[in-house]
Amino acid sequence: MIEEPPLLTIRRDAPRPTPEQIAAFQGVPTSFVCDAMGGGGALSPAIQPIGFGRDIDCTAAGPAWCAENGAADLLATLAALQTITPGDILVAGADGHQTCAAAGDRVMGMLKNRGGAGFVTDGPLRDYAGIVKVGLPAWCTGLVPSSPFGKGPGTVGGSVAIGGRTVCTGDMIVADRDGVVVVPFARLDEVIARLEKVKAAEYALDAEVEKGFCSPLDLEAMLADGRAVEAG
C-alpha cells in the first residue's frame, strides 16, 4: 500500500539571486535574454500573457517562487502566497491541466498584496475582468471558468515542470508580451555578462536600420566564395 503524502511540503533551502543580479534583468526584453542564453530558455509559446497583454502591461522580471500543484488543485499556490518574498514571480504548476483554472482574480489580488511581481502557470486562469482590475502581470494558457480545488498534495519552494522546462525556486523569470524566459540560478552571472554584449549589438543594429540599412547579408561575397550559388 502506498503511503499517503503530506498535504503540503514547504522547502526553504533554495538559493536566491542577489539584489544586483535581480536588477540586471529589469526592463530587459525576453528576446535579449534568450540570445544571451544561446537561443534557449523560453517556455512553450502555449504560455502567453493573459489577454495577449492588451489590458495589462505584462512585463515582469524576478526570482521564481515555485508552487507545484496537482491537476485541478491550488493548495500549493495558496501556501506560496504566505511564503513568497516581495518582488518574486509565483510559478504555479498545474500539471498542464487545461479544463480547470489554475487561479483567479482573488489569488491575483492576494499575490499583488503580498508584493509578488507576477504569476506564471501552465494552466488557464479565470475571472478575466477581475484580473484586469487587479493589474498584476500574468502568463497562462488561456481562460476557463471552472474552479480548482485546494486539497493537495503540493510542494512550495522546490521545482516545477512547466512549459517544457524545469523551473527551480531561485531561477530568474523574465517575461513580457513575447513570452516567458527562465534563467537557471547557476547561470545568472554568465547570462548577465553576455547580456551587455547582446544589448550593444541590438542597439547598434537598431540604429543602422533607422538609417536605412536593408540587409545583413553580403550576397556578392557569398556568391564569390561559393557559400551561395545561382541556379536556372
TrEMBL record:
This is Putative 4-hydroxy-4-methyl-2-oxoglutarate aldolase. One of its GO terms (molecular function) is metal ion binding. Substrate binds at G104, D105, R106, V107, R126. Its cofactor is Mg(2+); a divalent metal cation. Mg(2+) binds at D127. It comes from the Bacteria. It holds the Pfam family RraA-like. Gene3D superfamilies: Ribonuclease E inhibitor RraA/RraA-like. Keywords: Magnesium, Metal-binding. InterPro entries: RraA/RraA-like, RraA/RraA-like_sf.
